[in-house]
Amino acid sequence: MPIASCRFLIVFFVIFNSNFCEEFCSKDDDSCQHGQSSLASEINQLRERVEVLERERKTYMKVKFLNYKDRKRILVTGGAGFVGSHLVDRLMLGGHEVMVADNFFTGRKRNVDHWVGHPNFQLLNHDIVNSLYIEVDQIYHLASPASPPHYMFNAIKTIKTNTIGTINMMGLAKRVGARVLLASTSEVYGDPAEHPQRESYWGNVNPIGPRSCYDEGKRVAESIVYAYSKQEQVAVRVARIFNTFGPRMHMNDGRVVSNFILQALQNEPITIYGDGKQTRSFQYVDDLVAGLISLMNSNYSLPVNIGNPDERPIAEFAQAILQLIPESRSEIVLKPAVEDDPRRRQPDITTAKAQLGWQPKVPLHEGIQKTIEYFRGELQRQFLDENEH
């Protein structure tokens, strides 16, 4: 029962008890005493319940106050996912009203549960392949599986999310006059012949390969966004996101960081697909979120690379994780390379620096350490859940 209801009932019983005694005590003293005793018992029970509810009352992180001119209504599609939930945190703390639309295919309610019930927050169980009719000022369009096992699991659904879903979000933006930021990906560059990759590079993508549902899906999504910009004058922003890691990554998403850390923590072989010389550039999720917000609120409408130019071989990254988990008995094992896996990946972030004043700030080892601690907690939670059942 809500606290306010309990308090109301206590007041009601006190008043009723007083009126009861005034009207009936003179007629039947025994009934009066019995009634008073019974009511007093019920009032005490309600008081105890109020005390319990007060102790269990949900508390929220302190959010900034914004007046109605500065406060925005912001929709985050895929907002219960890894990146989306961190973006939601930053927007909520900034004082905005945030709506999350997520079908929970890879997102989890637990990622945003700490905001549920807050007056500035709304969670919608919604698949953006279906139209959405709400009033918003900005749309961060992040909805899409982003790890190979997830987007390959249902390739057609991945294509629909990135095409039909994007059309729906652009239609919404057109109707309400909202600005849209599309979370695109470095995968639009495919296995690049240009290194590092600049935004002007058109890419080298296999249109019928196992990764094409995602790679080409995002390329079409960019085309849709700019078609709406040119034809319907919708304000758009496009972020090409490079490899990102941090807390709230899905434990079985098959990405390099989560795989390596979980394998090391569980003393399993660390599996590298290929010779380990293929390179990646990893950014911590806090840096990515800062870049997305800067881009959304900038005046720059062309695609922008958001990533860390610190390029490292995969094998070196595995060794760095093992050094931060000294108790691990894991060894590195090489396996056959995955089809269409890019050999090199490094963003040129000249545009982000010049147009947004943005560059990554969190050191790699610091980000890895935070992610390790997160996965330690997840493994402990999993262990407790299994033992309870």
Quick rundown:
By secondary structure, the chain is an alpha/beta fold. Helix content is 45%, strand content 14%. The protein contains eleven helices and 13 strands.
Give the biggest sheet: 7 strands, parallel
Main structural class = alpha/beta
Q: Mean pLDDT score, rounded? A: 90
Strand content: 5-15%
Helix content: 40-55%
Note the run of SSEs as H and E.
HHEHEEEHHEHEEHEEEHEEHEHH
How is the topology of this model organized?
Layout: H1 3-24, H2 29-56, E1 73-77, H3 82-93, E2 97-102, E3 121-125, E4 138-141, H4 148-153, H5 155-176, E5 179-185, H6 212-232, E6 236-241, E7 244-245, H7 256-265, E8 270-273, E9 279-281, E10 283-284, H8 285-296, E11 304-306, E12 311-313, H9 314-324, E13 332-335, H10 350-356, H11 364-388
Parallel strand pairs: 1-2, 1-4, 2-3, 4-5, 5-6, 6-11, 7-10, 8-13
Antiparallel strand pairs: 9-12
